[in-house]
């Protein structure tokens, strides 16, 4: 970097996914450090909010929650898929909100069905975000996952064992948010793609970069710079 050149703020893009009443909107508010999403009502369409958090430019997309496998309307499925298009070139991570509570086979199948709308590659970019987890952390979290049963353990494994507990009742604890962002950066640094680019390779890295380059000549350079910055941060 040349002397006098301002340092760019690393941009982190997150999409919140989960069943209704799992604390998605509350998690978005906790992460951003302010009340941006309305927690008094159900989210009916994707909502995008931004802010600077822990030295990073953060974009958070909240999505409508599902009820069960059988009750998901087509419009809700379309909103889940649409969430990716709201943050070009694509999100770095999907935060799957799950309360630390009993988790059944039906719960697991519902998660797999709805995330499956985005294709198999979505699991490379997904982190399980346990909400309302006051008092759970470290070995306590490991024990809670075991108590959650085989289906919860299978889901966590499918997400690469990437987990984090967010205490939505303790929004003043910014350390938990910084730790979450560091886990997302580790996810990105270890992924072949910095961004989630589409379902099952129908949108390839090269196609996405060309699309962004056509819209903005500096887009490809920005994509490469951002992934390099995240990898360097992870090494440090």
From TrEMBL:
Keywords: GTP-binding, Nucleotide-binding. CDD domains: AIG1. It holds the Pfam family AIG1. InterPro entries: G_AIG1, GIMA/IAN/Toc, P-loop_NTPase. Residues 206-229 have a biased composition (Basic and acidic residues). Residues 206-236 are annotated as: Disordered. Residues 9-205 form the AIG1-type G domain. It comes from the Eukaryota. GO terms for molecular function: GTP binding; GTPase activity. Belongs to the TRAFAC class TrmE-Era-EngA-EngB-Septin-like GTPase superfamily. AIG1/Toc34/Toc159-like paraseptin GTPase family. IAN subfamily. This is AIG1-type G domain-containing protein.
